[in-house]
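pasting input
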Amino acid sequence: MSNVKDATNRVTNEESRNRTARNPNREADIPRLLQCLFQEHRYLAALVGVLESKAVSPAPLRMGDYYLLRDIAAYLHDYPDQVHHPTEDVLFGKLERRQPSMKGAIRRMRLDHETVMKETEALLDLLNRAIEEHGKELEESVRNACHSFATHQREHMEFENQTLFAAAIEALKPSDWRAIEHRFSTREDPLFGRIVGRQHRTLYEYLIGPNDETSGKLSLTRMRLLERMIRASGTIVNGADAFGARLRELAELLSRETRSALKQSLQRGDPVSAAVLPIRHGAFLASSVFRCNLDLLRILTTTIRDAFAHRVRGAVRQEELRDC
Amino acid sequence: MFSDFLRVQLDLTRASGELGMAMFSGHILRRIAPRTDRNLPVIALPGLMASDASFEPLSRFLREQGFNAQTWGLGRNRGLRGAAWNENLDAVRARLADRIKEMSDASSAPVSLVGHSMGGIYARELAARMEGEVDRVITLGAPTLHPYRAARHNQFAMDIADLINRQRAAELGGRTGLLHWDPDHPALPCVAIHSPIDAFVDEEHCHIPAYIVTQSTPASPRENIRVLSSHLGMTVNPFVMLAVADRLVVSRDNWCPFDPDRYFKGLFRRAAGVFYPEPGKLRKNRGTSAFVEMNQ
């Protein structure tokens, strides 16, 4: 969802740049209709940001992602294609009459609206097919389509915000704005309007819910924790193996020595040697256990060092990511 | 996953504390909670893998307050067991239909459904299909299953639920998911009781979205009640019990929001305020929504 924020900020910044570059005190003078169009661009930029974030996401697309992308495309087809773009076309018609020098740019935008509409329909078809086929074969096509759609939409909106809307503020007269508002469809936005349309409820509740950044961080934390546990468990397992091998070795040594000592004492007929045998073996065991404990301490130190080093590396990596 | 497992343990510990609290405060609760003499029928639907016994403390309390409270009588809630959601729900409806009719005939009043966790999802979906036969729905920590994101709930619990259901929870509701009702349909009151310390389900997906509450009509009121309670202990928590009893007696024609201050006085009122926290308090930092970002 970080792209949502980026996109929103970008549009907002450009918008404010445009306004303040001309006259910092003129924000209130922007006609209501144009304010609506700016606001709709902000919403569109956020939705386009979601499309792009899913397109470039390293995680494989799940069914829920396809539903989300499909619902965004359906909304884009339902409202911006049917109401937002036609309103802009009317606005550009007025602008063309007031400022003939903009004719080329306006023609380009009108053609662009037709292209955008066709692209939305194509994207919707593709996503519907992907949902029917459970997205297996079409994931790459969906990603490419979303990415190119998002890039085109963003360029389109940037041009409108920077060039045409700015020119309209300068060129159009209040009577023009009134005429456009008369022709402006009274249909309310079914997603961002006062009443949320039933068909867009899931998308709306996704947008009002906490953004995906949080869940992304959670899963990253989980992954880091898991990785650390795996690393630590690897070291512990290795240490336990070494510890087991050492114990086996000791047991073999002990049984070998016991057998040979008993044999010797019986051969010599020396019962005193046989009697001190347990003391000798006790001393041997004590020294062995001491060595084993030293081994365990070494294993523990290595584990802690590994875990700490991993944590430090994780922190450095986080710093790097933050810098990026 | 490990942290989610620990959260489940913590929830279990809290639930045992709540059970103890219910045992000690039972007589006070019975004294202050609203009573009815109309023998109002209530059916309680247990959560996933919970049996009728899980609702026994709440049912007993409601019976003592004059309600005709019974559990659903279908034994342990074993989830969907791989069946399609709609088919399963129709089967539950068919099995509950006789019981609902019998109870509403006996009391001459429509039945209210109280569902905990997955039982709450059942209650919500059943009531939407039996609008004329159900009076109101109260859900206790019942999540929604959003089609894009159902993984925000406790992952450990969700994995177990997936195993029991033999289906991923994210896919249970299919394309449309299983969301809260619309503001005006069905025309029944719906109360969602949710907790900020619920370790199983995400609070954001338990409460009815604010825009639905705002747009709801007097004929179909939607209400959220925030109670400090564990997930497993919701059926024994005395503060939840009080809220449930209050919402069951409130008239549909004269619906007013739940006000815990009515039941507590003086110092107790301040103490009770802790257990009914306001929406802003105890909120986890969940990040801002895209919608808020867009409007900034």
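fyi The first helix of chain B runs from residue 2 to 32.
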